[in-house]
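Hello support,

Our group uses your service weekly, and this is the first time we've seen a run hang past the timeout. The protein is Phosphoenolpyruvate carboxykinase (ATP). I'm not sure whether the cause is the sequence or the server load. Input pasted verbatim:
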Amino acid sequence: MAEFDHETLRASIGTRAGSVSRNDIAPALVAQAIAGGEGKFTADGALSVTTGAFTGRSPKDKFIVRDALTDRRVWWDNSGAMMPEAFERLLADAVASYGGLSVFRQDLIAGADPRHQYAVTVMTPSAWHALFIRNLLIRPNEGVELSPAARAATIVHVPRFKADPARHGSRGETVIALDMSRNIVVIAGTLYAGEIKKSVFSLFNFHAPEAGVLPMHCSANVGANGDTALFFGLSGTGKTTLSNDPARPLIGDDEHGWGEDGVFNLEGGCYAKTVKLSAEAEPEIFAATRRFGTVLENVVLDGNGKPSFDDVSLTENTRAAYPLTVLPRVAEGGAGGVPKTVVFLTADAFGVLPPIARLTPEQAVYHFLSGYTAKVAGTERGVTEPQATFSACFGAPFMPLHPTIYGELLEGKLRESGAAAWLINTGWTGGGYGVGKRIDIASTRRLLTAALDGSLEGAAMRTDELFGFRVPLQVPGVEAKLLTPRATWADAAAYDRQALKLADLFRRNFEKFGDGADAEPGPKLALAAE
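Update from on-call engineer: The timeout came from a worker crash unrelated to the input. Re-ran successfully.
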């Protein structure tokens, strides 16, 4: 297939637009957003915006063009399919919808490693969306140079254009359509900015494995000795809190690749959740929300223009988008070496999993494919007990290929690097939610430090009879009883029942992966044990 001419597409948008502003910096974009009534200043000078009906992603409205490249590669059980001819109509109509509008063009970089880069151009009629993506991706000449070999990608962002299901093959008026063969994305019918960010990640996740790169929905930091650590975890597990360590510069907080020489950030910014944000718990993120150029998305302001981070009347998915450069300690060049430590975080509200466990490469792949955490009871009417949540690779909505492809890549990387893999539970002990208590953050930090500094290498461990992983018997500064969850329960038999229930939830979730569907989470039942 001949290489697609992205500049022709971008020029066709420009000829229809009333004007095109190219690569405006933050002050100009903020001024345009305020002048256009797109947002308003907070008392601290950040830009406050709202996204209307859509305050989160629309996964059911996301489609991949089904063509010769994607037909046999995409995991269609997890992705909607759009026929090429429908996409062509959608693209043509989206381009036509720019007619007479003021368009903001941003030419940015995705990927700090020049061997695995994308030259991403976002075309949007919204100044605040242009500012958002400028904050989130890598800005050229800010520590990362654009490689001449970078793949071109174009995002056609028309948030107020309404798709026609009969004409465009969409589900409704909202659509996020990705043409993987030409690296074109059309986003229509939603103001939620996260769709732009995650579309770039989805393009990367499709192509990266072909180059032997493992795409990862994780945060990463690096120690004083150059030891890189990865942190995987779903919402509420403490990924952002634990990876933001004053002693370990941050590589990035969300999207990375693991290539030949180590880890690199796909982005140049942070899209941090702000619900219940406080200066005491997360001072760096809190400070970033008070700076000029930061975009606060769906954050309620009080009568004085101050953010009310505890107010979730618009959504619990309140966000702040800001460049990494505003943080005090960031890894130079957005990259780190080959990981020494890989951490899977879970908040087990069932109170079953130990606060830390060592995983073999096979067990690491199992937990990577499972992507487990648990939501607490009481979040929905009628929910009286914890609800297990599984998201393959800790980011299933953004992984176009079958999860086992990413799992095999991870196993190979772990074996080649010798990286230690750990499961850390930041959830409950002494019983499930409502009975037990949340594992205290001080203990979790001590456990994490022990995993990172290597002090647990050679430590005495027991093998969990049900799940098969090894659990340290002692960790300095941590109560020994905490390391054996069954011992923290007043009713040991109740713990056993809960543990069997959780193991069965793992087993049933794993059935969707086909091969290994009969696997069970423990050595007796032949799952994930060497």
